Predict the 3D structure of the following.
Amino acid sequence: MTGEFSGGLIQIITKDIPDENFVQLTIGSGYNNQATGKDFIGGHRQSANYFGFANDYQKKPTGMTLRAYNNLGILVDNGTATAAQKKEVASFLGTMPDNWALRKYTAQPIQNYQLTAGHSISFKDNSTLGIVAAFTYRNEQLADKHDIYASNQQDYKGTDYIFNTLWGVALMWAIIGVPIK
């Protein structure tokens, strides 16, 4: 019988119109005991990946949509493709980058950053405009180990390596002191 433990803290801090202007930087880190500091398997990684973008190694093949390729692939597989269709498939496959080799990295700790700024503007009619903006970034490298066996259905033992980069931006504004009709 397996046992699991889950725990955590949820802290919700609501922001009101700031009483005074502020800038706040929050830096956080995390540890995944199945990944951090251990071997991490993945495709070629460049700095763009840490910003949530694909790099040059992850370009899509050109000349045909993947849907069209799949349709032609079915014809090739069942032996009904013409010579021209086979040539078209071969040409398309020739545009695929040679980037399928897996590489071994060392998984880094989870990292997250948040920059929040607030500004308050007072007007002559005693109303106040408050603006709060926040920008967040998080990168995590996780390993999810599986050992699944179900008779006649599946037999899988392995590790899923997950490389995530998440961005978030929020902008809030409010006016107080103005009568609303």
Remarks:
- Residues 66-77 form the longest helix (12 residues).
